[in-house]
Specification:
There is one protein chain. The chain has about 260 residues and is an alpha/beta fold. It has a single domain (about 5-260), classed as NAD(P)-binding Rossmann-like Domain (Rossmann fold, 3-Layer(aba) Sandwich). The protein is about 45% helix and about 15% strand. The protein contains nine helices and seven strands. It has helices spanning about 15-25, 35-50, 65-80, 105-135, 155-175, 195-200, 215-220, 240-245, 245-260, and strands at about 5-10, 30-35, 55-60, 85-90, 140, 180-185, 230-235. Strands 3-2-1-4-5-6-7 form a seven-stranded parallel beta sheet, with helices on both faces. Helix 1 runs parallel beside helix 2 (about 35-50) and helix 4 runs parallel beside helix 5. It binds NADP nicotinamide-adenine-dinucleotide phosphate. NADP nicotinamide-adenine-dinucleotide phosphate (NAP) binds next to helix 1, strand 2 and helix 6.
């Protein structure tokens, strides 16, 4: 693949699984962002085993802090010599847990959820735009079914994801002629810290391992998805494969899966 990729929220859960799979696919430079530097370093270590030739950049930063966003961009562009191919806006905040009703949400928590889940993807996309235009790159925004269903207590998170979906489509429409594709992916229910904190009474064993939902993210980062933009793909459905992969690629992929 030979690409430069930045993943927000690369310290655990889906972001960690994506980092490992992008490395496995031969990603050249992988920047992973999160607040927990120790956790990022552990992921860096895992990547070094999977793909020693991948250069990992760990960036400890809080996406809700504007100066941190500036630093993420500066450090990444300096490392990649201005060439970022793929931006994955994956990190998310729920706000307080147990999840409060909107009436009980503090103003501060609501703002922080929007900063992390919506404003940070906006600012990062905007600041990386010259580089993404140069590379005819790909932006992948991680959404949720909470963007479409009015689940009580998911108000802050759901509102942020609904706005992220719309922002994805508008970026896609505005950047189409420049060759930058912008899509969102709903990864579906996964067994991660975020989901366990949101629904502590449910059995996390019923949810997917994040490592099993990465195919669509690999596809969207690859040149195979050139021209696919403004879409909302479901990682755990095979619909996207039938819709976007050529019959030839689909056959190869199905054959590989049967041998796994
Ligand atoms: N799990 C599910 O069932 C599910 C379903 C639908 C959609 N999603 C979406 O999938 C994506 C990944 O979530 P996940 O389930 O993998 O959650 P997770 O395991 O809790 O990971 C969340 C990541 O976001 C980072 N993060 C959170 N707030 C941050 C901030 N202010 N600054 C920097 N990094 C921050 C965390 O890093 P640090 O803690 O190190 O900061 C962590 O790496 C999210 O967009 C989520 O909305 C998840």
């Amino acid at each position: 693949m030979g690409k430069s990729i930045l993943i927000t929220g690369g310290s655990q859960g889906l972001g960690r699984a994506l980092a490992i799979d992008y490395a496995r696919e031969g990603c050249k430079i992988l920047a992973i962002v999160g607040r927990n530097l120790d956790a990022l370093r552990k992921v860096e270590e895992e990547i070094s085993h999977v793909s020693p030739e991948t250069e990992t950049l760990t960036i400890s930063a809080d996406l809700a802090v504007p100066q941190d966003l500036e630093r993420i961009v500066a450090v990444t562009l300096s490392k990649t010599l201005g060439n970022l191919d793929v931006l994955v806006n994956n990190a998310s905040s729920l706000g307080a847990t147990p999840l409060p009703l909107l009436a009980d949400f503090t103003d501060g928590d609501f703002v922080k959820v929007l900063q992390t889940n919506l404003i940070a993807p906006f600012v990062l996309t905007k600041k990386f735009l010259p580089s993404l235009i140069e590379s005819m790159g790909s932006v992948i925004n991680v959404t949720s079914d909470a963007s479409r269903n009015a689940y009580p207590r998911w108000g802050g998170y759901g509102a942020s994801k609904a706005a992220l979906d719309m922002m994805t489509r508008i970026w896609a429409a505005e950047l189409n002629e420049l060759g930058v594709r912008v899509n969102s992916v709903d990864p579906g229910d996964m067994n991660t810290a975020l989901h366990r904190a949101a629904e502590p009474d449910l059995d996390p064993k019923l949810w997917a391992d994040p490592a099993d939902v990465t195919d669509v993210f690999v596809y969207l980062a690859s040149d195979e998805s050139a021209g696919v933009t403004g879409k909302r793909l479901l990682a755990q459905s095979r619909e996207w494969m039938a819709q976007f992969l050529s019959p030839h690629r689909l056959t190869i992929r199905n054959r590989a899966r049967r041998h796994e």
